[in-house]
Structures are given as structure tokens and as C-alpha cells.
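Whiteboard transcription, Tuesday session. T.W. wrote the C-alpha cells on the left side:
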């Protein structure tokens, strides 16, 4: 289960990605690290850490 900070960040980043007309292909939680990975568009990969911080890959 994602943390509340991760869910909030995931929602906000998903909103901005779709606002820029990027399709979201995959949202996956890494069971080992508890990070969320978002694949959007052709080149956009976003990693969301359990504390809600995020970065582009």
C-alpha cells in the first residue's frame, strides 16, 4: 500500500501528466523499496519515494 504522501504526489503528477496530454502507461509499486514508478508518454519516468518526494529518471 502506498503512503498517504505517495498517493497525494501520484495524484498531482498524474494530473499534470494528463494535462500535458501524456498517456500514463504504468503505475507500479516496487515491493522491495516501496517506491512508485510512473511511466508516462514515450520518455517520461517518474519515481516517487515513500516520503512523497519524487524525481525524473
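and on the right, the sequence the group agreed on:
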Amino acid at each position: 500500500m502506498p503512503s498517504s504522501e505517495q498517493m497525494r504526489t501520484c495524484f498531482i503528477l498524474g494530473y499534470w501528466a494528463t494535462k500535458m496530454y501524456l498517456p500514463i502507461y504504468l503505475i507500479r509499486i516496487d515491493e522491495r523499496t516501496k517506491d512508485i514508478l510512473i511511466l508516462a508518454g514515450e520518455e517520461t519516468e517518474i519515481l516517487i519515494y515513500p516520503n512523497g518526494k519524487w524525481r525524473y529518471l
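Someone added at the bottom: Residues 4-56 form one domain.
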